[in-house]
Amino acid sequence: MVSEQDQSFPPLIPNSETLQKEHYERIAADYDTHYNDLYSQNYMRRFVFEPMFEGLELNNQSVLEAMCGGGQATPFLLSNGARVTGLDISPQQTMNFKRRHQKADILCGSILNAGIASESFDTIAVIGGIHHMPPFCNESILEIHRILKPGGHFCFMEPHNESFAERFRQEWYKHDPLFAKNEAAINMTGLHETFKDYFSFKHEHYLGNFGYLFVLNSMVFRIPPKFKSIYSPTIILTEAVFNKILGKPFSCFVVAQWQKK
Fold first, then answer.
1. How much is the pLDDT for 170?
2. Residue range 117-141: mean pLDDT, rounded
3. Among 46, 61, 95, 228, who pairs with 122 as Cys (CB 3.0-4.6 Å)?
4. Is 62 exposed, middle or buried (0-12, 13-18, 19+ CB in 10 A)?
5. Which has the closest alpha carbon to 127: 231, 40, 18?
6. Which of these, 197, 205, 186, lies nearest to 256 by C-alpha position?
7. What is the CA radius of gyration of the chain?
């Protein structure tokens, strides 16, 4: 259970989120190019969106894509009939979102104090946003819980720190300017303990290997987007095979679907 003190959200945007805002304003153009190309979208649809929203009726449901960037999940959600609102702290990314998704709404602000009314959304989706929130990860999830309608779903994809990749990831985060200083992979064991009274953990899938690294995260490895067409189809096929045999310790990320109690 999270204490009452932990539930006191910062009245203003904290320094950690200011860092993230400034960071993503600097890399917005490259980020938009790499994470929204055809191959990244194909990867996300197959290995993130389909398992993330498995079993959910999205048609005519209100969905918030929080910390949305350019809106990676929004095309999938719109194609399934959802009424989508994006939320991101970066003005540049919110402009990218609005330009790309004219049938969706967009808010510019922090998940911690966006002023969204309680019980506003049937589903909240976060694609790689929680690990940008340290030291306010718990506060962010509590705010998501508040915004969700009773019985609503929190669906997310995040890098997790209970894998053999974690030591390598930590060193990379320290030295690569593409990562903000406060980024840190999430710990699912700790989150289960913290939020067991708030959510039912419906299902979680541990996924991600070569396709996650070289297709989805081509920007991190400085791979020119024009080269992705050469190797991406083959790597995506092999990813499906490896995901069936590699468990939590050998997978780079977790896809989860939680339900508000």
1. 82
2. 95
3. 61
4. middle
5. 40
6. 205
7. 17
* Residue 189 structure tokens: 């064991």
Concatenating the DSSP letter of every residue in the chain gives ---TGGG---SS--HHHHHHHHHHHHHHHHHHHHHSSHHHHHHHIIIIIHHHTTT---TT-EEEEET-TTTSSHHHHHHTT-EEEEEES-HHHHHHHHHH-TTSEEEES-TTS--PPTT-EEEEEEES-GGG-TT-HHHHHHHHHHHEEEEEEEEEEEEBSSSTTHHHHHHHHHH-TTS-TT---B-HHHHHHHHTTTEEEEEEEEE-SHHIIIIITTTTTT--GGGHHHHHHHHHHHHHHHHHH--GGG-SEEEEEEEE-
pLDDT tens string 136-169:
999 999 999 999 999 999 999 999 999 988 888 8
| 46 backbone φψ class: left, alpha, beta (φ>0; ψ -120 to 50) | alpha
Residue with tokens 């490896």: 242
What are 157's two structure tokens? 């994809």
Domains of the chain: 5-260 (3.40.50.150)
Residue type, 160: H
Whether this prediction's pTM lies above 0.85 is answered by yes
Residue type, 183: E
pLDDT at residue number 178: 75
Query: Are the beta carbons of 158 and 253 closer than 8 angstroms?
Result: yes
| Dist CA 207 CA 190 (whole Å) | 19
The rounded distance, in Å, linking the Cα atoms of 11 and 171 is: 33
* 5 has a pLDDT exceeding 50: no
